[in-house]
Amino acid sequence: MTSAIHVVGEVLATKRAGAYRHLTIAAPGIPERFRAGNFVAVSVGDDLLARRPLWIHRVKETGAYGPTLDVVVQPRGPGSTRLAELPVGARLPVTGPLGRPFALPREPVSCVLVGEGYAAAPLFPLAARLRERGCPVTLVLAADDEAHLLSALEARRSARSVSVVTRDGSVGARGDVTSQVDAVLERADADVVYAAGPTATLAAVAAAAERRGAWSQVALETPMACGTGLCQGCPVPVVAEDGVTRRVRACVDGPVIRGDRVHWGELG
């Protein structure tokens, strides 16, 4: 796991994209330590004490402020809404990079990446790393509707093949991505499968990968009160090699975990 640091960051840019707000943050030292699948925890004010975990969507290596990171915020509660409303120049405490990142294959293999909603954010830097290793990448993006679809245009620059699925059919194929995963893995001849999104989506992708005999990794989307493992507030039931189910912490033992190891029936 990459060692994390705590810095005071500065919002350099903010942009609305559909239902989301994209923030570019200068957080010295964090972009340089980043690996795909890491996240940051940010504080949003003394009256909202719990820090908010945010997926790192992109790292920009150069700029007037040095390396920067982009995060995606979906305004829902008071904390995320306050984050989304931060103006350029706002300063905020940032801790990161946190969590266990995606493991990369040692040799070029066919990879399928499945992401739903804003949680698809970590799949974009992952796709770039896989391409650097010569892996053919198929990217599947899903959402309820077009407004909640993350970076669909950028996706076509990130992968050899892109499929888009929305439940209302406003863009791409109509339906639930979980019902289409088997067909996607078959078409791509997938060897390794990565997924990021709601629990039901992750469970379906992990099951489809297991049926195919492919190796899977999932980035868990779960509440994390501290992001550093101290509060023990993000337990995940994982089946160990001996067949016994044990609880691990999503923030430090994950958020990326082998899909065939998660005991999905016990994960609420």
Descriptive tags:
alpha/beta; six-stranded antiparallel beta barrel; 15 strands; 268 residues; Elongation Factor Tu (Ef-tu), domain 3; Rossmann fold; 35% strand; 2 domains; seven-stranded mixed sheet; single chain; 6 helices
The CATH class designation of the largest domain is Alpha Beta
CATH architecture title of the largest domain: 3-Layer(aba) Sandwich
Quaternary status: single chain
The end-to-end distance, rounded to whole angstroms, is: 26 Å
What's the story with the biggest beta sheet? 7 strands, mixed
Question: What is this entry, summarized?
Answer:
The protein has helices spanning 30-33, 78-84, 123-132, 152-158, 181-188, 199-212, and strands spanning 5-17, 20-26, 39-42, 52-60, 68-73, 91-98, 111-116, 137-143, 161-166, 173-174, 192-197, 215-220, 235-239, 245-249, 256-258. It has 268 residues and is α/β, with parallel strands linked by helices.
